[in-house]
Amino acid sequence: MATDKKKKPHYVNNKEFLQAMIDWKATVVEAEANDEFRPQVTNYIGECFLKIANHLSYRPNFINYTYREEMISDGIENCLQYIDNFDPEKSKNPFAYFTQIIYFAFVRRITREKKQSKIKDRLLKRSNIEDMIMVQEHDDAGDYQRQFMDFLQQYNFSDDKD
Fold it and tell me: pTM higher than 0.85, yes or no?
């Protein structure tokens, strides 16, 4: 009993992506030869970077971070930074090349964020804020409730409009 599974198309077509990279690199070489401004990356190439970064961010090892958007931005930024290093003569797989760039950008962002979190935790421990909060919660809980009730009694919040 063989079932015919429909093959899902890849979210980035590697052959089209390779051709777009070759075409873009040709326009860069032409612009440099004519002393013109460097051309922008095409929308298609930018969309490929975005799709790769988005899909990679849904992997189990990246999905639960609160700074996923920053990870995606870092990945796209690194792709644009290292786009010139992709050589179609050496590799016919731009998808793998840029996926690896994005992967390591994600890892670097996670490392940076964890380092910042450790620094924040150390600062909180040094400031003894946890102790102050605990003391304040136990000592002032009744005072806050009384103050709130006084506030409510002071102002008449009725539905009557004058």
Answer: no
Q: How many CB atoms lie within 10 A of CB 36?
A: 10
- CA distance linking residue 79 with residue 100, whole number of Å: 10
Cα angle 77-20-45, degrees, rounded to a multiple of 5: 25
Q: What's the distance, CA 74 to chain centroid?
A: 7
Interaxial angle between packed helices 94-127 and 129-154, expressed in degrees from 0 to 180 and rounded to the nearest 10: 80
Token pair listed for 121: 């935790």
- pLDDT by residue (tens digit) across 10-65? 789 999 999 999 999 999 999 999 999 999 999 999 999 999 999 999 999 998 99
Residue 114 and residue 101: Cα distance in Å, rounded?
20
For residue 100, which of 118, 84, 86, 114 has the smallest C-alpha distance?
A: 86
Residue ranges per structural domain of the chain: 14-127
Q: How far apart are the first and last CA of the chain?
A: 79
